[in-house]
Amino acid sequence: MHANSDKEKMTHIVAAKAAFRVEQAGKTWEQRVQAIARMNAADKLAKAAMQKFMGGKK
Amino acid sequence: MVRQAQPPVIVFELLFSFTQSRNSLAPPRRHIVANVLLCNSTEMQAALRSLNQLVADRVIGQYAIGGAIGASFYVEAVQTEDIDAFVFLKASPSGLISLTPIYDALVALGGSIDREYVRFAEWPLQILPDANDLIRESIRMASEVEYDGIPTRVFTAAHLCAVALQTGRTKDFLRVAMFMEQRAVDLEQLDRIVERHGLADRLSRAMSYIQGT
Prior knowledge:
The complex is a heterodimer. Chain A is 83% helix and 0% strand.
């Protein structure tokens, strides 16, 4: 995935979220819970990276 | 191109690539994606097994899963940090209600205390008491289901919506809107519960969210 501008990146994020909604419609409970677990793990990593990023600007 | 297999990962892969362009200290993207993909549901099974054991050992009368994890049985997944387990509590001889015996039993079954939660690896389990008539009814009328072969109980869609209306935060109204949008709730059943528990004004507010979107 090569997105150059922030606008392109946002477009891809919106597309990924839309794809996620479509994908979720046919999922089992187990698959949905696993998706939540992945979101949580990703969120944790994103927060850690953001903290590092903010720290790096000092 | 956007890959279809793991959309949540893609979102965060993008976020990290954005971060990396500004901060060379960010870990390599491949490593991050691998970490995200390691998540699985075995901890969820452990939490559910433990709740079943609490019922078998008569530490609690009964339980049912509500909140976002319960909702994900019926509608698309939304992010949540914990498993909400609503339980019938047993009053002590003095009449006081204490969560301590439940927490102690869950720790003995492999959980660890983390603030108000009992954590099973990545999944924090929150024990919520049968605080009012609606919660008691929701636990009593919960559906018997299975999660990966583990028998468990989940609030009905109508009770999940009613409890969300009663809780009344913006995200709760949005959850009700989601159930309606996805036609995942029996509206006649919801109406009866709403009437029984005096939640008609809350339902009107949730409907305004739907009309506004």
